[in-house]
Amino acid sequence: MTDAPIVQLSSVTHRYGATAALDDISLDIPAGCMAGLIGPDGVGKSTLLALAAGVRKVQTGQVQVLRGDIRDRHHLKDCNTRIAYMPQGLGRNLYPTLTVTENLDFFGRLFGQSKAEREERIADLLKATGLDPFPDRPAGKLSGGMKQKLSLCSALIHDPDLLILDEPTTGVDPLSRQQFWDLIDRIRSERPTMSVIVATAYMEEAERFDWLAAMSDGKVIATGTPEDVRIQSGQSTLEKAFIALLPEAARQGHRDVVVPPRAHVEGTPAVQAISLTKRFGDFVAVDGVNFEIERGEIFGFLGSNGCGKTTTMKMLTGLLPASDGQALLFGEPLDANDMRTRQRVGYMSQSFSLYSELTVRQNLDLHAELYQIPVARRAGRVAEMLDTFALRDEADQKPDALPLGIRQRLQLAVAVIHAPEVLILDEPTSGVDPIARDAFWQHLVGLSRDNGVTIFVSTHFMNEAERCDRISLMHAGRVLAVGAPTEITKSKEAATLNDAFISYLREAAGDIEEMQTTPASSSPTQFRAPEPQRQSGFQFARLWAFALRETMEILRDPLRLTFAFLGPVILMLTFGYGISFDVTDLPYAVLDQDQTSESRTLLEAFSGSRYFAEQASATSSEELEARLRAGEIAIAIEIPPDFGRMLLRNESPEVRIAIDAAMPFRAETARGYLQGLALTYMEDQIERTYGEAIDTSGAEIETRFRYNQAFKSVFAIVPSVIMLMLVLIPAMMAAMGVVREKETGSIANFRSTPVTRTEFVLGKQLPYVVIAMLSFLTLLVVAYAVFHVPVRGSGFALLVGTFLYVLATTGFGVLISTFTRTQVAATFAAAIIAIIPAVNFSGLLVPVSSLSGGGRMIGLGFPSAWYQQISVGTFTKELGFAELWQNHVVLVGFAFLFIAVSIQMLGKQEK
Amino acid sequence: MMQWLSNIYRLGLKELRSLRADPVLLLLIVYIFSFAVYAVATGAKLEVVNASVAYVDLDRSDLTGRIIEAILPPEFDTPEEISATDIDRVMNKGDYVFVLYFPPGFEADVIAARLPEVQLNVDATAMVQAGNGSVFLQEIISAEVTKFIAGDDTSTSLPINLVVTAKFNPNLQSTWFSSVMQVINNVTILSVLLTGAALIREREHGTIEHLLVMPVSPAEIMLAKIWANGLAINVAAVLSLWLVVQGILAVPIAGSITLFVAGTVLYLVSVTGLGILLATFTTSMPQFGLLALPVLVIMNLLSGSTTPMESIPDWLQTIMQISPSTHFVAFSQAILYRGAGLNTVWPDMLVMAGLSAIFFVLALMRFRKTMAAN
């Protein structure tokens, strides 16, 4: 702690909309030690760390990191190679479908390490963290503790000078937590120059830190060693110290939670789990769990994330059917469909699960009604809930605008509005600040002791567990111990409940693989000083790292892969068969009021044509009209009574034909057919009458249907469909590829590592270009094999054109993803923006040459219209580069434009 | 029963509130029923409009001049003259769909009854215009030549007098067709997307679990979604017919709007049910989008709302009978264009009701099984 501060903030303010996450903070974080930020969720810890790591853009104030201004681009680049940043959330920067080794390999590549170097480092890190038995396990299938270790490995792969960890142990079991901190300690002892900054919501962990800053509501309320902070406030623990340090207003109404002793209640237990088991495929989430909860008891449920707590709770509410065993509620088997059971149970799920678009009061109203509280008592009950849970002031606000603590109170109010006898609460206080947590527990105690409600609650906090009447420890799907907190502590002769829990976990380690983590003694060479590397400038290796990783992820998502290849084929078949402008078999009916050989000759002309399909003849004009109206026939022919006579007398009898013009295209075509038919008939008639052919016209018209002599729709449709498919699907997939990283949080890896924007964009795009090209080849095969549409022109010109086109369309997708935030928005935006120009203004239906004004501009302003000419030209017009090179050039322009704008718009730092 | 109805009503109100709170979806609804309808109806015309024509005139006679002058808007752009050597080039580039070639001495040959030949080159890759456009051009040329020979005397008597009338759309305007069909296609798209998205959003936010632990049955949840989203779409569709189709595009509507609304309700039940059914097969919005896209494209393209049903191969027509959109398109065309009544359209309504029931039951069967699973 002798050096200059590693991170120095002066007058830093950071706002998200109207709320200030950081409010004029000035803070020096010492170098060469383990510095901690403590405080509950939402006080600005994550924002501060993100600013220090350079992943978020500084709004106002100065941030000095590693003795340089983080706003300086060159220094930021330097920082990217020297800082390792582990974002909040279990394994948030990991790729769940990739294996342990593949994840680390990706990070190694990002830092330009050679294959040998990567292998060596990965082996070292896995050994040091005890992950070496599972190099091929997908990251998503690791337990919480293992995920965090893997995250740590990926952070350490490039020997950082500054390690920034944002709540690395939230949601991890106590043993894994302890192991994690031991690991950090050991790494620090081997690399004494490395500085570590950690944020945590667990006050007891902060005791290990060399230095800490307590934060509340965007401000720092205390700094110093843990001892300093405790002495400053005159409290025995950091948790109490934190509460004492809070400003008076925030502390208002806080009192310690006191749990009065419970009076024993006779009767069958409220909840019984008998060998309760849940399997998902071959994974056993809950394995033969047994326990009983007495009426009015507060029963605590402890265990790490993913150990089966939530699954057990869901089985007890009837949300999930049990694979084996039984759940009893008041001695009766739980029946998920029994509405009376649901009246007796209240449930609060892990995440906030009320309607965020309804106000607090509306949420309560809705639940009161759905729980069938009689109308007379409804308003009273809602008012009672607002008072009991101190929600009056927030009654007309929407939940999203409220702090987490109040939202959790609302959830509890909703869960008890129907006065249930059993309350099942899944981690209700996760992420809530200590004061709000205590207030929440006051309510729980009241419900149990005053109203006799049985409470089944899961938690990560040991001080909450100590307040329960009894607790059960769960690990890897099994219950390790059940009993009163003091009994459990005593049974292991431990000083604290936490220690007892750890001791139970160690005991269970025999058959639980995660516990084999006896970290190898590390050699001094293990964590070497970083070799001086030139990391700036474009590096193909990093681009390749992203491309490779993206490819692996796609390969492991069968749904996306299936869609990428099958979707276009299905749609091409649909279009090929479905969009046909070859009008044939038009249904027609005749009203022949003449019935002579002359009328029959006329009608034979119709029945002999493949364009018309004769239906039963009509007996009256009204019938014809009605059938036309019903859509049963498309053409109605009416021959007048004295047709034959008039024809013979050369009086030009009138033949009336009505066409159903509801579909104008069909009617227009039908009219053309009719005229042709009539002409032929008349020439026949004239020939018959005069005995010689007389041409009525003075000139011949030789119509040459070029490029498509048979004049069949498929020859025009198939090449155009390729145009359509290669814009819609690649654009959608590429757009989701980037936005998905934003949603899952792995975008942090782009922000915190030396990878440049160009490398990122091109790396992400490359796999989708390859997929689109493969998809193009399958479409080519379908075009040839199913529709017999061969490429008549230059295949090479088509291939090059397609490549440029998909470069442009995937670039378009990436561009969309730079300004959308959710996958939903990206999907809609890509599809809707692309679909109008591609379908309407690119020559699929109407040739671009016939478009005018706006339509033409839209068409020419999008790559599809240009590619359509390449596609149609090479498929049917026997063209090559000589005729099409201009289109290729324009596509190059589009690709370049889209990619360049994407790179410009994609911020290396989050705003 | 009262409780049942009250739950459905309450949950439906909640659904409408959610919709109101989602500006992206609202914008999507407005866009798709206004601009998208207008753009497609006026932009992508299937009739011959503004077809581009070029000509090579080596005769430069009175007759060729008259023919060229007779090629008029709105069907055709004013023809442009090109040189004979350029024919291949401009057609390859797709600059013109039609290129006429008048040989030297054309007029003289016509007068001498030597039947000279006019060459009409058609870019047959421009399917929609090539067929009908070439028929029109042939008619124009024949008519002009005939007039020229007869000295503007058109009273040549023909053996029969063919009177062709186009019913229900006398001027064959494709705007009439495409605008209404676009509204129908949009009803399909939105019904599936909105209900599916509503369900998936509830699942992603965990609120569906909340509903499932309450005394509310899956059938109630589904019916609430169906009536609420159905109502929103029905209102949007009728407004679109009214304001955009009848108002701005001035398309007359022949039949009873009330009957149309009644049929739309039936149709909405079936497609919203389908939306829920599709949503039960996926776990996230992107997956749902990927699954829904081909389903929607097929339902819209092969329903008879884009190309004539007769042009689709028979086997495919048979398969398409299980799509409610096929029946809804037939139903809508009969009512809106041809002014048909209930006595004509009841079979289609019956099928839609049957399909609604099938989709609903299938969705219900999958609902509980898939909704609560992790």
TrEMBL record, chain A:
Q: What is its main location?
A: membrane
Q: How does it sit in the membrane?
A: Multi-pass membrane protein
Ranges for domain ABC transmembrane type-2 come to 679-909
What taxonomic lineage is listed for the species of origin? Bacteria, Pseudomonadati, Pseudomonadota, Alphaproteobacteria, Rhodobacterales
Which controlled-vocabulary keywords does the entry list? ATP-binding, Membrane, Nucleotide-binding, Transmembrane, Transmembrane helix
Q: Where in the cell is it found?
A: Membrane
> Recorded GO terms, molecular function?
ABC-type transporter activity; ATP binding; ATP hydrolysis activity
Query: Cellular component per GO?
Result: membrane
- Membrane-crossing ranges are 559-579, 714-739, 766-787, 793-816, 828-848, 885-906
Please give the name of this protein: Ribosome-dependent ATPase
Query: Where are the stretches annotated Disordered?
Result: 514-534
Q: Which InterPro entries match?
A: AAA+_ATPase (IPR003593), ABC2_perm_RbbA (IPR047651), ABC2_TM (IPR013525), ABC2_TM_bact-type (IPR047817), ABC_transporter-like_ATP-bd (IPR003439), ABC_transporter-like_CS (IPR017871), P-loop_NTPase (IPR027417)
Here the segments flagged for biased composition (Polar residues) are 515-526
Keyword Secreted found = no
- Domain ABC transporter: from-to ranges: 7-242, 271-501
Automatic annotation (TrEMBL), chain B:
Q: Where in the cell is it found?
A: Cell membrane
Can you tell me where the transmembrane regions are? 21-41, 176-200, 221-245, 257-281, 288-306, 349-367
Q: Which PROSITE patterns match?
A: ABC_TM2
Kindly list the GO molecular function terms attached to this UniProt entry.
ABC-type transporter activity
What residues does the ABC transmembrane type-2 domain cover?
134-370
Q: Which UniProt keywords apply?
A: Cell membrane, Membrane, Transmembrane, Transmembrane helix, Transport
Can you list the GO cellular component terms from the UniProt entry? plasma membrane
Q: Which membrane topology describes this protein?
A: Multi-pass membrane protein
Q: Which family does it belong to?
A: Belongs to the ABC-2 integral membrane protein family.
The name this protein carries in UniProt is ABC-2 type transport system permease protein
Origin organism is Litoreibacter ascidiaceicola
